[in-house]
């Protein structure tokens, strides 16, 4: 660790340094959809559609709530990476403890409000009583994990800010591995169903938090500790909260775009809605792969900003884009050549398969049209240029809305998918344009 700190200011960005972060974090991110599949499979064994509906609805409500606090991961990564680039070990620790303090306060409030979130979720979904009851059970239990989940966000942000992708993978593997094992034990073996799946999450988050805190505390014992005054520095909190506010607005705009996409697809009929859902899963899985390189861009760009090192910054942008486009190209080729077979694996409905195959090329190219947006997001988060990221996301959402209003009525589902491509391309290109201006003044 001393060697790492000694080289904090002077570093060279190579393919190896990019892959050292991107590969383990790609594997870590892929455990998330795997966990969702296991949750669904466990509850599905009870043969009750109401339980599956309650799980899906509860997961949606939970995801919306926690999207608000995803900044505790990404914001912490950018701030720690910059402190790491400056060689400021005290500030690295202070950033983590500020994020942990926010996580504890917010997490306790969320857990206390879980009954209200359950009632609000039931009202919003408007599902049948048995679905609503299952959803309520899931939300009330799972939100008990809120403090643990948010602290895990902060710890992962700290780890990734230091470029320790292997440690990040280990923490995520432990978290999701425990969760998956307990899903089978509590949900299936003991027959707890939806409640078992929720308690598995609570237990997994708690144990992963204990492990993460043990690792960072053992590390900090060997270092000089920041003063309480530095940790509680109000201007630093204001900066963190400002950064987090912009990331939150960006995340909700992204959710809104996907929600509008789904809603418009529903207007074209149930079969088209189902086919679009199948195809969107392919895009989201490709996104998990691209997220690994976006994470590498976060750490390396943030570190370069902290070190005031323009050459490593440009190299980080260049290499993560090259790897990102290469991976996106491979994903597109796979979907174009084997997509029909993958659709057949996901659904047995002949009607859904036929419609999905028709629009498969649109879904296949989303990886390529979206890669620049993913990578630029990583660069801007690492550099903590959150205001630009927020503004370009709002611009992209406006472009998406205009495209949706004009293209979907004229060209149906083809127009809907074209609107999604417009959204992705405007995000990436607009951020790239701002990046050129930012680099001139940053160094």
TrEMBL record:
NCBIfam families: matE (TIGR00797). The lineage of its organism: Bacteria, Pseudomonadati, Pseudomonadota, Alphaproteobacteria, Hyphomicrobiales. The chain crosses the membrane at residues 18-38, 50-72, 95-117, 137-161, 173-192, 198-220, 247-265, 271-290, 321-347, 359-380, 392-411, 417-437. This is MATE family efflux transporter. It is a multi-pass membrane protein. Belongs to the multi antimicrobial extrusion (MATE) (TC 2.A.66.1) family. Keywords: Membrane, Transmembrane, Transmembrane helix. It is found in: Membrane. PANTHER family: PROTEIN DETOXIFICATION 44, CHLOROPLASTIC (PTHR42893:SF46), PROTEIN DETOXIFICATION 44, CHLOROPLASTIC-RELATED (PTHR42893). It comes from the Bacteria.
């Amino acid at each position: 660790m001393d060697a790492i700190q000694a080289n904090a200011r002077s570093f060279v960005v190579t393919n190896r340094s990019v892959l050292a972060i991107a590969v383990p974090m790609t594997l870590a991110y892929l455990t998330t959809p795997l966990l969702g599949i296991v949750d669904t499979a466990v509850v599905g064994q009870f043969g009750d559609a109401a339980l599956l509906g309650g799980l899906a609805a509860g997961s949606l409500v939970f995801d919306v709530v926690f999207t608000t606090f995803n900044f505790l991961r990404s914001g912490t990564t950018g701030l720690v990476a910059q402190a790491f680039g400056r060689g400021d070990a005290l500030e690295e620790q202070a950033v983590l403890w500020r994020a942990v303090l926010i996580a504890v306060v917010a997490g306790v409030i969320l857990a206390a409000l879980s009954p209200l979130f359950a009632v609000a979720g039931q009202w919003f979904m408007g599902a049948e009583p048995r679905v609503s009851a299952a959803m309520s059970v899931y939300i009330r239990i799972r939100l008990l994990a809120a403090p643990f989940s948010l602290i895990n966000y902060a710890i992962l942000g700290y780890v990734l800010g230091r470029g320790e992708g292997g440690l990040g993978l280990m923490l995520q593997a432990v978290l999701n591995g425990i969760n998956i094992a307990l899903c089978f034990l509590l949900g299936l073996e003991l027959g707890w169903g939806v409640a078992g799946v929720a308690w598995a999450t609570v237990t997994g988050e708690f144990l992963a938090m204990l492990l993460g805190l043990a690792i960072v505390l053992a590390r900090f014992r060997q270092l000089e500790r920041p003063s309480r005054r530095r940790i509680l520095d109000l201007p630093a909190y204001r900066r963190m909260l400002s950064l987090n506010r912009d990331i939150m607005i960006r995340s909700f705009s992204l959710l809104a775009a996907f929600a509008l996409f789904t809603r418009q697809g529903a207007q074209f009929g149930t079969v088209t809605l189902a086919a679009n859902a199948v195809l969107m899963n392919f895009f989201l899985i490709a996104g998990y792969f691209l997220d690994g390189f976006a994470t590498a861009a976060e750490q390396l760009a943030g570190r370069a900003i902290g070190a005031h090192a323009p050459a490593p910054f440009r190299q980080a942008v260049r290499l993560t884009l090259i790897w990102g486009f290469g991976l996106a190209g491979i994903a597109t080729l796979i979907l174009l050549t084997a997509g029909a077979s993958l659709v057949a694996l996901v659904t047995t409905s002949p009607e859904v398969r036929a419609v999905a195959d028709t629009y498969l090329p649109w879904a296949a190219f989303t990886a390529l049209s979206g890669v620049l947006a993913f990578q630029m997001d990583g660069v801007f988060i690492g550099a903590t240029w959150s205001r630009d990221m927020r503004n370009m996301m709002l611009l992209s959402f406006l472009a998406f809305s205009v495209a949706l209003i004009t293209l979907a009525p004229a060209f149906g589902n083809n127009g809907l998918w074209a609107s999604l491509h417009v959204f992705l391309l405007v995000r990436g290109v607009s951020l790239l344009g701002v990046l050129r201006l930012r680099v001139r003044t940053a160094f």
